[in-house]
């Protein structure tokens, strides 16, 4: 049984179990989800890389909209967010993303680029980090709920008979319902912790562990924790990568929506 999932101490061997689990479950996604996965992790990053070689990296408005659609399907469902993003003029999207990517070329700290992208309607720190992650998948993490919660408050994988303790930064639900404000300050913490983690795991593994790898593993860890709590078995982790439909994102019809969009 995997017992060490805390980001400060998780081994590469255990980390790889969750990363592999993510890739296995990707095969179970509906076709519409699979297409968005290809855009997010392969097609759009490759297009940006080619544009960078050609002299200017930027995103088309349609590409930003596809990334937002991916974010809404795999994260908190906010239908109003897509409308806000769609209201941006094509020229503004190209110019703003180009400026943000140029900042990343000069400074590995993403804070200025995050601020630049946030000038677009419907783009907050979380969505901005998604766009930057496509520009630099190796070092820039996407501000996902699962990654934030894993890096800051580890899911309670203790035996279900063990009494959970309340403490600052923890709630009765193992942090799965912990409010996230999606601020630039929170993202700065994610970036710092992800950088330290990927550097440590890369050294241990003897190969490059990317920010995208950490994002995927964190997603599996978070969904595993939610699944265990839902079935009343806090602490049951897979001994080997297994396929489970519980790790797939829910249909938008089954999600709660927010009346007032919280731009992230």
Structure keywords:
globular; 55% helix; mainly alpha; 264 residues
Our Rg estimate from Cα atoms comes to 18 Å
Name the poorly predicted regions: 157-174, 234-246, 252-261
User: What's the N-to-C terminus distance?
Assistant: 36 Å
The biggest beta sheet reads: none
The total count of strands amounts to 0
Please tell me what the overall shape is.
globular
Number of helical regions? 10
* DSSP strand content: under 5%
**Secondary-structure element order, as H and E?**
HHHHHHHHHH
Percentage of residues assigned to helices = 55-70%
What class, by secondary structure content?
A: mainly alpha
Mean pLDDT: 82
Describe the structure.
The protein is mainly alpha-helical and 264 residues long. It has ten helices and no strands. The chain has helices spanning 12-26, 31-54, 61-74, 79-86, 90-106, 111-117, 125-135, 145-152, 184-205, 211-230. It is globular. 36% of the residues are buried.
Task: Chart the SSEs and their pairings.
Elements: H1 12-26, H2 31-54, H3 61-74, H4 79-86, H5 90-106, H6 111-117, H7 125-135, H8 145-152, H9 184-205, H10 211-230
Helix pairs in contact: 1-10, 2-3, 3-4, 5-6, 6-7, 8-9, 8-10
In short:
The chain is mainly alpha-helical. It contains 10 helices and no strands.
